Amino acid sequence: MTPAGTPAPVAELGERPAAPSGAGGPWGHPYAFVPEAGSEAGRARVTRPAGPGLRVAGAALSILAALLLGFVADVGLLGHVRHVRDRQVDYADLRGELANGVAPVGAAPMEGVKQLAPGVPFAVLEIPRLHLREVVDEGTTARTLSRGLGHRRDTPLPGQAGVSVIMGRQGMYGGPFRNLDGLHEGWTIKVTTGQGTHTYRVIGVRRAGDPQPQAVAQGGGRLTLITADGTPFMPWGILRVDADLISPAQPASAPAVAAAALPDDEKPMAVQKSAWLPLVLLGQALVAAAALLAWAHARWGRRHAWVVGVPVLGVLGLLVADNAALLLPNLM
């Protein structure tokens, strides 16, 4: 026992001081170790598994990010691949029709000649200086222009007397007219139809506010190429290239529709309003599939849920992206 007034002995190095009587650690043991505040052990936290709500939210965000990425890929890389495929298929079909003399030469039905209807390929446009060779389809809706070039239905066909108009995209689906502003006066454009090969000479490039070219001479022909003006995927206007026909003009047939009756979705920078209904229905199906996948992710686990859900979401996502792209300007 230490006499009164004598200091307590200092503990030996490494010796644990006795705990006060009745003191105990978290588990009631008098010598249980309690981490000091600020120490690494004191800062450690217990990791808790994520609840069902958090896992569902995480899966939903992952699906949304994948869909947005898929939309960009669909109108960009995949759109370019689809354009190349569509061009090859249309050219193979049209080449046989041109060789057999059954390619359409007008909107009116003709015996032994294929009738010209919206979406039907009927011509091949070539610009040698731009290394451009594209099939021209009838019509200028966003869906038609996703395959290639389109002929405005209220104008005569290329090679015929009058002003013929052909429209094409600047950036999306291969952007066949992306270099159209590089054309110079005097360069030639060739268009092959069921009436032969027709040659045009460029007379100028014009934008909004530029003067109109002189009217076409009686019995003469002109070709106007139209696309978006500005940065690809961010257009701010319309670009036009005018070229006069220097080969003999062919007899013109009546246009498929009058200028005043041309549907709004076939005009420059128009959107295809008919895509709204399938987009809404497909969007609902996609949301339902995403909700089921998020539920499966919480119940089955990530691997099993993605194996089942990725193919379904992939198909629905591409269909939604296709219809959403039709609501963008048809010259983009």
Mean pLDDT: 83
The succession of helices and strands, N to C, reads: HHHEEHEEEEEEHH
Kindly provide the radius of gyration, computed on alpha-carbon positions and rounded to a whole number of angstroms.
35 Å
**What overall form do the CA principal axes indicate?**
elongated
Characterize the largest beta sheet: strand count, sense, and whether it forms a barrel: 8 strands, mixed, barrel
Distance between the termini: 97 Å
* Strand order, sheet with most strands: 1-2-3-4-7-8-6-5
Please give the CATH class of the domain at 79-268. Answer: Mainly Beta
Give the beta-strand count. Answer: 8
Helix coverage percent of residues?
Answer: 25-40%
Structural class: alpha+beta
Q: With helices defined by DSSP (H or I, 4 residues minimum), what is the helix count?
A: 6
CATH H-level name of the domain at 79-268... which superfamily? Sortase
Poorly predicted ranges (pLDDT <50, ≥5 residues)?
A: 22-29
CATH topology of the domain at 79-268: Sortase, Chain: A
The proportion of residues in beta strands is 15-25%
CATH architectural category of the domain at 79-268 = Beta Barrel
Report on the architecture of this protein.
Helix 2 (52-75) runs parallel beside helix 3 and helix 2 packs across helix 5. This protein has helices at residues 40-43, 52-75, 77-100, 142-145, 276-300, 302-325, and strands spanning 121-127, 132-138, 149-151, 162-167, 188-193, 196-206, 221-231, 234-245. The chain is elongated and about 75 Å long. It is of the alpha+beta class. The chain has an eight-stranded mixed β-barrel with strand order 1-2-3-4-7-8-6-5. It has a domain at 79-268: Beta Barrel (Sortase, Chain: A).
